[in-house]
Amino acid sequence: MKTEELGDASLETLTSNYASAAAAHGLSSTTGDHCQANKEYKTLAEICKELRRRGIDAQKHLLSLLDNKTPYVRLWAASHSLEFSPKSAENVLEHLAKCGGVPGFDAEITLQEWRKGTLKFP
């Protein structure tokens, strides 16, 4: 999805594209394809900005991804949900942290930075 298309996209389309980008980012990161991972990160950041621009009700669409089967989707959705639904987001991140692996490590670091107040959102 191109940046200029975000403003006209439905919330369902944005959420679906967010989930796809989160899964692809995770896969690209674990396979070492950093160019693709950076591209997917940009997509995640742009969708997150668009949801924030539309307001809290739009942002809450990310909460539907907190139980996604893909750990990377849960990780990204929880990370971006911290600012408007901290309890739900922290629960997901804590669970991922206990599961280990790369998503677990990322969840642990995200929680640490959130709790220190140093986590920055796009």
Walkthrough of the structure:
The chain is mostly helical and 122 residues long. The protein has one domain: Serine Threonine Protein Phosphatase 5, Tetratricopeptide repeat, CATH 1.25.40. 71% of the residues lie in helices and 0% in strands. The chain has 6 helices and no strands. It has helices at residues 11-31, 34-54, 56-59, 71-81, 86-99, 101-116. It is globular, with a radius of gyration of 13 Å.
Keywords:
122 residues, mainly alpha, Serine Threonine Protein Phosphatase 5, Tetratricopeptide repeat, globular
Give a topology summary.
Blueprint: H1 11-31, H2 34-54, H3 56-59, H4 71-81, H5 86-99, H6 101-116
Helix pairs in contact: 1-2, 1-4, 4-5, 4-6, 5-6
Short précis:
The protein is mainly α.
**Tally of extended strands?**
0
Largest sheet, in brief, is:
none
Distance between the termini: 17 Å
Strand content: under 5%
Rg: 13 Å
- Uncertain stretches of 5 or more adjacent residues: none
Mean pLDDT: 95
Please give the share of residues in helix: over 70%
Tell me the overall shape: globular
Q: What would CATH call the architecture?
A: Alpha Horseshoe
Query: Could you please say which CATH topology applies here?
Result: Serine Threonine Protein Phosphatase 5, Tetratricopeptide repeat
Superfamily (CATH H level) name:
Phosphatidylinositol 3-kinase, accessory domain (PIK)
Along the chain, the helix and strand elements come as HHHHHH
Number of helices: 6
Which class in CATH terms?
Answer: Mainly Alpha
